[in-house]
Amino acid sequence: MPSSGVFHFRMLTYRAAPVVSQFNFPSTMSHKKKVQWKPSVDEYVIQDSPKSWPSPLPTPSTPFFHPPPPPQPNQNLPLRGALELHRCLTPAQALKLDFSLPSATFRESLPLAPLLDTSACTPAQVELHILVSTPLYRIEFDVAHTPHRVVTVGDILTRIQWYLRQYDKGRAPPEAAPYMRHRIATVGEYCGNNRDLVKAEHEGCGRFVDHLLGLTAFAGLIPQPGRGGNYLQVELVTPARYTRL
Q1: What is the separation, in whole angstroms, between the first and last Cα of the chain?
Q2: pTM score, two decimals?
Q3: pLDDT averaged over consecutive 10-residue blocks of the chain (245 residues)?
Q4: How far apart are CA 68 and CA 234, in angstroms?
Q5: Residue 123 contacts residue 83 (beta carbons within 8 Å)
Q6: Cβ pair 223, 91 in contact under 8 A
Q7: Three-class SS state of 12
Q8: Residue-by-residue DSSP string for 167-235
């Protein structure tokens, strides 16, 4: 170092080396791939599973509301796609059933087993898609079995009743309150004053069937507008139980 106190610096120039990633990605990653996502399923559209049949499915959580589709003619017509319903599921000859009744009473009102075990349609199907749609309530679900068993009349009717009788956990619209109170107050008249059933009904709260505003009686199945032959919609009418409201 010179004694004059003057410091000399040597300017060094560095050339940055290209950054090499520690990951060796294949060259195909640089190309965009088309990914087809599975359509989302609303949590209220419950998919039936052959593995879970006949165990109850999880209780629906959040209902979604849509206006009802245009009314369909109340006729006994074969479904599209050469699919024809059993006569007791058609609007012309529908079984007289009230889905608002307790499950035990509802099962007693069903016809004998030979009819319930009959295929729901011709040709027989292993899966049918069911829609219940009213001004304040809408639900879609599947009734399905393994390929070794077809969907029967009993499968359709009991599954509809099971969904409608689920508790709504306090999410009922205000319009449903009078129907909930009436259902609870009149249960004894329709279950032979069975104390256990009456007690269970009084201890419960609102059910999704109350959202139907009295449209609780089965009036047959019709094709869903714009859907395939195995997409069916439930027709409902008001039974005598609710004509007082």
Answers
A1: 108
A2: 0.66
A3: 43 44 44 41 38 40 39 43 87 96 92 89 94 96 82 95 95 95 95 93 93 98 90 97 90
A4: 12
A5: yes
A6: no
A7: coil
A8: B-TT---GGGHHHHHHHHHTHHHHTTT-HHHHHHHHH---BGGGGGTT--EEEEEEEPTTS-TTEEEEE
